[in-house]
Design goal:
alpha/beta; binds NADP nicotinamide-adenine-dinucleotide phosphate; 7 strands
Length: 252
Amino acid sequence: MFEGYKVVITGATSGMGLAAAKQLIADGATVIAIGRNFAKVGDLGDRYIPCKCEVRDPEQIEAAVKFIDETFGGELDTFINAAGAGTGPYGVTNITAEAFDAGVNMLLRAPVLFGKALYPMLLKSPHKNGSIVNICSASGHAISGDNMIYNISKHAHIHLTKQQAQQFIGVRSNSVSPGFIDTPIFAAPGTDLGEEAIEQMFAFVRSILPIPRIGTPDEAAEVILFLASEDAMYLNGADITVDGGLGTVVSG
Ligand SMILES: NC(=O)c1ccc[n+]([C@@H]2O[C@H](COP(=O)([O-])OP(=O)(O)OC[C@H]3O[C@@H](n4cnc5c(N)ncnc54)[C@H](OP(=O)(O)O)[C@@H]3O)[C@@H](O)[C@H]2O)c1
């Protein structure tokens, strides 16, 4: 399905981004993997090309784009935006400018800047299927008091997807909004939950979900690949929730 595809994935060292990278590589694609810590990724072969980049830093994004341009000869089929982390316990009463900038720059400004820079390469998609898949969140459809920066960024990222779909003529842009997926994000900086708190949260989520289990990174990656594939050539500006039915029991 993805034989010879040229793909860029941010957040490709862990969780859903890594799962998508593995599935795409198994299907014949070459992936430029954007992340910060590659030590935790095993050997995925020559078609997994690491590119170190702190996505909060526009200069590092510029350097990554130059690397992508040179490596892929100015052509790109698929751009998957999966980099992300928690943004701390902030709501409207305790928000700080510093925390706001750090969160929004990672979750929103980076996808905006990468999208703008990669659009001309996606237009030259060798497979005539240039597309963006943004990994947004069920949080982009809900209100959560002490998770404000994350939620407003994800709301805006879903909107950005539709904006890109409207204005990036010749390139499709769609998003996936996961519910609870079992990845390292819950223990990572920005969320910092311990093992016990994660298990308590997962137990609660399982108890309310119509599909009473937490999703796997591979299940989310399968939907990401569908949106990037030639089976989704007429999907543009869509957001697909991958949440086991969470949105049917919790809503904003
Ligand atoms: N897991 C869930 O339940 C869930 C639900 C809804 C939405 N999401 C969203 O899905 C996306 C993927 O999350 P995940 O659960 O797969 O998380 P994860 O396993 O923790 O992976 C996050 C990835 O993002 C990268 N990253 C984080 N901050 C970065 C930064 N400032 N600069 C560059 N790279 C950065 C990490 O790179 P390094 O580790 O190399 O630094 C890692 O590759 C995120 O946008 C997240 O918000 C997750």
